Amino acid sequence: MKVASKLFGILLLLVAMSATASALVDVTYSLNTQNANAQAYNCINADCSSVSAFTGSFPNGASTEIGQLTVRFPSTLATQYGYAVFFSSNGYIPLAQKVFSHTYGDDKVFTTSVNLNLEKQIGNTAESCSAIVDSFELSSDNAGSVNADASLRLSAISTSFTQPSGTIKYIPSNLQSGYLTADTDLMLDVYDVHMNKVLSQNSTTTLTAGTTAHALFNFNIAKTDQYTLKLTTQINDAKCTSSVDSEYTKSVLLNYDSQSAPFKTEVTNFKVSPLSPGKNTQVTVSFDVASYQHWGNGVYKPLSGQYYSEVYYKLYAPNGGEVYSGGRGQPTTETFGFVPLMEGAYTLHIDAAVGGGRPDPKRGQIIAHDTYTIVVGSSKTYNASFQPFDAITGNKIVNATATLNGVSIVTNTAGAIFEGLAPGLYNYAITQNDYNAVSGSIVISDYNQVLSVPMNPKVPGTTETTHSATITVVDADGNTISGAEVTIGSKHALTNSFGQSTFIELDNGTYEFSASADGYDAKSSSFVIAGSDVNVIVSLGIGSNEASSEQELFVRSVRIPYAFEAKAGETVDIYLTFENKNLGNMRAIATAVIPELGVRASAGPFDFNSGDDLNKVLHLEIPAYAEPGTYFARIAIGEGKNTRIIYREVELS
């Protein structure tokens, strides 16, 4: 059934206020529409996928006819993960905030104001939608009955249906049905070994952005044979201007007994990051490969002894040209990256089977012959808005200078708005003659950002001698981690929804710090303040009980000889030295990526065995159109979970 509402899409704009500077309780939001409604919830986990009833209030009501709404936050945070606040109005795309406002228990009511702009709905805001198949699992019995379970999610070339990952995953039910759903047609075709179609089934389901849906098929196969199953999805909803068909194929042996095919290989956990990639942006693809042997009575166990899995794969562009290929033996998780140079549907073919002492071909095996579609949209840019305000009075500060990666704008009553920003990490600084300077960094990724920045008035007769340090905590894939704990000496802070925590009033010197988060290994490091503010990125690995000082991928050195003298159109050489300390034999790869520029360099895959001490050189070609400024290169070395991530600055002059 089609969604009746004539409202199209949702763009969630995420605003984070640093917990270290949120001594506020009453926040008055001025909207660009007179009639609006608000909803608020307590986040009870880091990505706000679970919520509880809001412990604050709406002093003047949760709706307005004069374009202003006041939200009162408790004196202490209800949870360490902050609040989710949603604003909606007929004819506008809803907007959501991640807020950390509180008064540290002070009984005084602090006030501030924030300008919010809801984006006007103009026709079908979802430019092109797609239903992505994440997995397609099969089960059958010897009588020929087959069950197929497809796991699907909703995506769009615009961000209309795509929730910003890792920040606010909960969406109120009243917003879901009107903005975040799309009706989807599913077509399952089954072909025999000669590619003759033997049956077809169709169904319709409604997908909701940010959630996974399952489509179930059941059919009967009378003859034992190798069959190819093709599942095609097509969005059929008025919210979308157009839709891109997504296909998934799987080659399997059906209606078999355990003696005829005692081996099987599966490809699972297929992932694409970002979920809705754009042209000229870095895309990372990963999937798991596993093979099993039948041990009788329907029990399958992982391979052992002389047998192992083999996988080979190729990625093709929409015009049919080959973009990437790879393959190796004994894989568990396979990961690769590419930068799409055109829009449309990219096709990835994966073949995986049992290798080694191959099984008797007369007995056969269930091989994996899978095909995925990766839908790439246009190059995306976003806006970043900065609204400085007096940390004591809450009044807006005008005539301040906001600088973002070298570009400066003087603020007015609406703050400063930087437009056309590609995804990436940006450093900012805000100065005004009567206030102490503030600096930090933000990560632009999949959504516009609005940042309220508190500034402390200067004390007459004094000069600013201290500085700030902004710590950004990311995972091994470069995704920011909100709710991580950062400690510098006796100071503690939780990272906001951008994965950042800022420490102020730091004198010149060397500082030790640590960062930790649930599910990740803690990490300690240091930084130096020498007359200016600093920004530090720390990467946390997935937590495990295997790591030790005697068992690790040890990076001895990363040298970039011309890191601070690079120029557009030139090549930056990165020299790596690293050691495999008792992690076992692997096929490793070394990569360097600058996401903002859409450039990537790699070496490998290569043999990297226990005890090996290797040197590799990566050659990053800087585009001729690259603007001067400081960029962060993400360097990855290793294989699967045994991968080290390192960030280094590259400055273009």
Keywords:
653 residues; mainly beta; Immunoglobulin-like; five-stranded antiparallel β-sheet; 47 strands
Number of strands: 47
Percentage of residues assigned to helices: under 10%
Total helices: the number is 1
Uncertain runs: 1-23, 157-166, 357-363, 544-550
Let me know the average pLDDT: 75
Question: How does CATH name the architecture of the largest domain?
Answer: Sandwich
Give the total of domains.
Answer: 6
Question: What Rg is obtained from the alpha carbons, in whole angstroms?
Answer: 27 Å
Spatial gap, N to C terminus: 57 Å
Share of residues in strands: over 45%
Please identify the structural class as seen in this structure.
mainly beta
Sum up the overall morphology in one term: globular
CATH homologous superfamily heading of the largest domain: Immunoglobulins
Query: What is the CATH topology of the largest domain?
Result: Immunoglobulin-like
What would your notes on this structure say?
The chain folds into six domains: about 1-125, Immunoglobulin-like, CATH 2.60.40; about 125-250, Sandwich (Immunoglobulin-like), CATH 2.60.40.10; about 255-380, Immunoglobulin-like (Sandwich); about 380-465, Sandwich (Immunoglobulin-like), CATH 2.60.40; about 465-545, Immunoglobulins (Immunoglobulin-like, Sandwich), CATH 2.60.40; about 550-653, C2 domain (Immunoglobulin-like), CATH 2.60.40. The chain starts with about 25 loop residues before the first strand and ends with a strand. The chain is globular. The strands form 13 sheets. Strands 2, 3, 4, 6 and 8 form a five-stranded antiparallel beta sheet that branches. Strands 15-12-11-17 form a four-stranded mixed beta sheet, with no helix packed on it. The protein has about 650 residues and is mainly beta. The protein is built from one helix and 47 strands. Helices cover about 0% and strands about 55% of the residues. The longest helix is centred in the N-terminal third of the chain and has 7 residues, at about 175-180.
